Amino acid sequence: MAPRFVLGLDLAGPANAPDTAAALFATRGTGLALVELRTGLDDRALLAWLRGHVPVAGALVAGLDAPLSYNPGGGDRPGDRALRARLTAAGLPPGSVMAPTMTRMAYLTLRGMAVARLLQATWPDPFVCETHPGGSLVLRGAEAGLVRSLKRVAGARTAVLAWLATQGVAGLPTRAGDHAVMAAAAALGAHGAARGRAVWRHAAEPPLHPFDLVC
Prior knowledge:
- By secondary structure, the chain is an alpha/beta fold.
- It has helices spanning 43-53, 78-89, 106-122, 133-138, 144-148, 154-166, 178-194; strands at 4-10, 21-28, 31-39, 59-65, 127-131, 169-170, 201-202, 213-214.
- The protein has an eight-stranded mixed β-sheet with strand order 6-3-2-1-4-5-8-7.
- The protein contains seven helices and eight strands; from the N terminus they run βββαβααβαααβαββ.
């Protein structure tokens, strides 16, 4: 069987490559072993980098931290409402889940849909899902306060990286930027979903919402 690779992507909008991070892992038993962490990737650079590691015959799992669909007429999709309620109860702010067509989110949605299509056009049958990295962390037991502090507190990032090692995510550095940490968390969520072990899942509703939303 071809090796399975698991990709976590913390995406920013099409014109904001510096805030995009990718974490690529190879499966190792039920865990993940880091292949490489990269930041600052636009779509062309992402594809070239990924092709350098993952053969077309390789089994690719990808979790994208970006909306991969939008609701006709705008506003929340059913999965957005359900996930917001679950994560608010777990200690994350309501704004951690925003509607895909909001002004702050529309460019991210555009990028997410394009990258998902790019992956499907390059690999024969990738498992692609929409992930919520913060949810993947807190719903597996990471401290919500640390997750809320990731962007501004380096110690919170260090603590979450150490916690990820306890979840079978091997090879991560002891220090990394917030986007890289979230990319690793996106991979953790996608890996769980691909194995049927998501801690939270809103099933795809094709054709309008063709990807699972998972933590």
